[in-house]
Amino acid sequence: MELDIVELSRLQFAMTAMYHFLFVPLTLGLSIIIAIMETVYVMTDRPIWRQMTKFWGTLFGINFVLGVATGITMEFQFGMNWSYYSHYVGDIFGAPLAVEGLMAFFLEATFVGLFFFGWDKLSKRAHMIVTWLVAIGSNFSALWILIANGWMQNPVGAQFNPMSMRMEMTSFFDVVFNQVAQAKFVHTVSAGYVTASVFVLGVSAWYLLKNRHTDLARRSIAVAASFGLASALSVVVLGDESGYSVTHSQKMKLAAIEGMWETLPAPASFTLVGFPDQEARETHYALHIPYVMGLIGTRSLTHEIPGIADLVKQAEERIRSGQIAYDALMTYRAEKGQVSDEVRTTFEAHSKDLGFALLLKRYVDDPRLASDDQIKMAANDTVPTVWPLFWAFRLMVALGFSFIAVMAWFFWMASFRRMQFPRLALWLAVIIIPTPWIAAELGWFVAEFGRQPWTVDGVLPTALSASQLSVTDLAITLAGFVLFYTVLFVIEMGLMLKYIRKGPHVDVSETDQWQKQHRERLSAPSPFAQPAE
Q: 504, 424, 492: which is closest to 220 by C-alpha?
């Protein structure tokens, strides 16, 4: 297969996924925030909280609809652009996607309709339950998608069947409770909560700057700052857990992120900044923080983190082991499964390295005939391009800590300083609205680009996963997707800005009635008051 077809297929899928993820984080976070706001409305019966729920719910609805449009296209690409991948691992990868479609998406879509059209048809408590079910459905969708993606990062609960020539599931439990998948889920949804919190904070700050809808803005800031602070702290903590899981399942990705060319004595230092040089295999002008990488990556002071050079040597050994598995597999095919116990035992002993032998397909049709030089080239292919991973990770982490600082400051001002926000701080809140999306996209770049050259880590190389399409087909559809998604993005931005400028609908009669009842409650004599003598 021509490499340019693979690269164009990767580019098309990356573009689709990154466009889609412009919508996902806000959906995840806003669903929880509006559920919190409606819960406060049910508890207090104050109309302002209902108005807030409806206003932020409208923005959630716009984002949700456009997110669905991009997500459906992305799932179709598995069959169209990555047909061999779908054939090879479809038994495992398709299961969580099917569950997501049958359970989570239907739950989410059904109750979204009730959320928007059930205000005057459901009781307050029933509508609040609907809103929480929308939030649960949104997060449940993310769970199953990330279980599927987590399996690509750490393919547990499955094995290769030499008779069907496919990967088959051996334990649904192991797939669902995959350590990498669970770490990715909690980290990703927490990032979505931060995204929505920064969005609500920024829009509310803009209202305060314009002296409009100040009651809604101040209460929204209080919710966003408290929820956002907890979420930002959890992103960092859960990101650390995600990094710890990578230490065990994707050692090459961790070494590339750190720019760790050689294995260092334990505990390894963390490279704060530097300039990775792939050709020289060193990081120039590196600034190290002692012990930190060892503590993060291994939770100990004695365990080493292998460097890129040692991992390439291990890859070469696994390629040679994979050649033995490939030879046994060809015997299986020639004998139509009627093989000796010796062949069967040989295949079972080396089957976990079969994917490494498939790396040789880039250089030779039959991996058994590969030369030593070709084996060395295939081993070197397991090293992703280091410098973009190195810097993307550090920028993502820097943004993560900045969110903690921003949310902590606004939480302090909202809780203990009577919401007396300086105008400079409000403008800052508006300016940083795009930054959580930047951090989220960087996070996905690190996760997916760092996995290369694998579609399924250690199992199926990316170069073998793509469909047999022409360059012309890919170029035309890529241009069409870019145009289509750009139009969708412009539409969303236009609708979002329109409804933000419009602001919430204020039911004056409802508000006046509540204020009248509130004054009557305050002026009513206390049942505990002593009668006058």
A: 504
Q: Give dist(CA 122, CA 97) in Å, integer.
A: 32
How high is the pLDDT of residue 245?
80
Residue 169, φ and ψ in degrees, nearest 5 = -70, 135
Q: How far is CA 191 from CA 41, 150, 181, 432, 512, in A?
A: 26, 17, 15, 15, 39
247, 429 contact by CB (below 8 A): no
456 DSSP assignment: E
CA distances from 433 to 37, 68, 251, 404, 489 (A): 21, 22, 34, 14, 16
pLDDT confidence of residue 526: 55
Whole-angstrom CA distances from 469 to 70, 462, 477 are 22, 15, 11
Query: Cα separations (Å) of 524 from 466, 512, 516?
Result: 74, 18, 12
CB 55, CB 507: distance < 8 Å: no
Closest to 462 measured CA to CA, from 362, 372, 349, 354 = 362
Q: What is the mean pLDDT of each run of 10 residues along the chain (533 residues)?
A: 76 88 91 95 91 94 84 79 89 86 74 89 93 90 89 92 89 91 90 96 95 92 95 86 80 91 87 90 90 83 89 95 93 83 89 94 92 94 94 94 95 89 94 95 92 92 88 88 88 92 71 54 57 50
pLDDT recorded at residue 5: 86
Could you tell me the pTM of the whole model? 0.90
Tell me the residue ranges of DSSP E strands in 390-486.
Answer: 454-456, 460-461
> How long is the chain?
533
3-state secondary structure of 107: helix
Question: Are 51 and 37 within 8 A, CB to CB?
Answer: no
Residues 382, 315 contacting (CB under 8 angstroms): yes
| Widest CA span in the chain | 109
Q: How far apart are CA 212 and CA 333, in angstroms?
A: 73
d(CA 195, CA 227): 11
Query: What H or E segment, with its residue span, contains residue 413?
Result: helix 386-416
CB of 82 closer than 8 Å to CB of 13: yes
- Return the amino acid letter for 446: V
Query: What is the pLDDT, as a whole number, of residue 352?
Result: 93
Task: Look up residue 80 and give its two tokens.
Answer: 């169209």
> 167 burial class (0-12, 13-18, 19+ CB within 10 angstroms)?
buried
